[in-house]
Design brief:
binds zinc ion, 264 residues, alpha/beta, seven-stranded mixed β-sheet
């Protein structure tokens, strides 16, 4: 069996991604209520009872809201780096010490036939990091919540089979929108989120022969739209000489609806 995944929910109202192999089942973040998490799992025909563990990217509430509840209910191990643990303690309620595990920055951990690699991103949290999943020669990259994509990140994420890639905002919509200036500056800054255009430029530099699917993720509800993100990304890619729809396809993600459980 191959690597399968579903983006359960994506956006500032809550993030959660499910990844499985024949013998491992991981959840990356649980940024929705316990009830909503249960409903999302039901929609993909899986049960949180059978999870191997939860990987945490960073301590913002749209990524950890449901973590304590879910981990306690299903007695699941939680993995996060030390600084994230320090920032997260007190935000997720009591978690028994035997369920707390450290997953260091830029480390690879093996769980059966699944290798999980962490890498740092540029975001206003304690020590934010995302993950690359390796299984039987396939590579799945998750990268959202980053102000920009550095050369170091590009090296780690290059030529993946599947990307779940942040395409947070349309710069024009954000600039013209109702957000106060300090919030706009945060989002546009190096520790905020990547715009549609910046995401596409970074994509054009990391896409390789293996790349088949790109999921546009963490779209801003106020400063972006699915069609706009998709259009901006494919236009920018085209400007770089890369045509979506030929070698690879672009997919939407949704804040409330899971993407179909799909093979990498
Ligand atoms: Zn964040
Ligand atoms: Zn976020």
């Amino acid at each position: 069996m191959t690597l399968h995944f579903s983006v359960l929910a994506s956006g500032s109202t809550g993030n959660a991604i499910y990844v499985e192999t024949e013998d491992q089942r991981f959840l990356v973040d649980a940024g929705l209520s316990g009830k909503q998490m249960d409903a999302l799992f039901q929609q993909i025909g899986r049960d949180m009872k059978s999870l191997s563990g939860i990987l945490v990217t960073h301590e913002h509430s749209d990524h950890i809201k449901g973590i304590g509840i879910v981990a306690r209910k299903y007695k699941l191990p939680i993995y996060a780096n030390e600084k994230t643990w320090n920032a997260m303690n007190g935000l997720i309620g009591e978690v028994p010490v035997e369920q707390k595990f450290t997953f260091g920055m830029e480390t690879v951990k093996s769980f059966g036939s699944l290798d999980i690699e962490s890498f740092g991103v540029s975001h206003d949290a304690a020590e934010p990091m995302f993950y690359v999943f390796h299984h039987e020669g396939k590579k799945l990259v998750l990268i959202t919540d980053t102000g920009y994509v550095s050369d170091r990140m590009k090296g780690i994420i290059s030529n993946a089979d599947v990307y779940v890639f942040e395409s947070n905002h349309d710069v024009q919509m954000l600039r013209m929108g109702r957000y106060p200036w300090n919030i706009k500056r945060r989002i546009l800054g190096d520790y905020g989120h990547v715009s549609n255009e910046d995401a596409a430029i970074a994509m054009s530099e990391v896409i390789g022969d293996n790349t088949k699917q790109i999921y546009l993720a963490h779209l801003s509800a106020d400063n972006n739209m699915k069609d706009l993100a998709r259009m901006a990304v494919s236009q920018t890619l085209e400007g770089q000489g890369i045509r979506a729809g030929e070698q690879f396809n672009l997919f939407d993600t949704d804040p409330k609806k899971p993407t179909a459980l799909t093979a990498v």
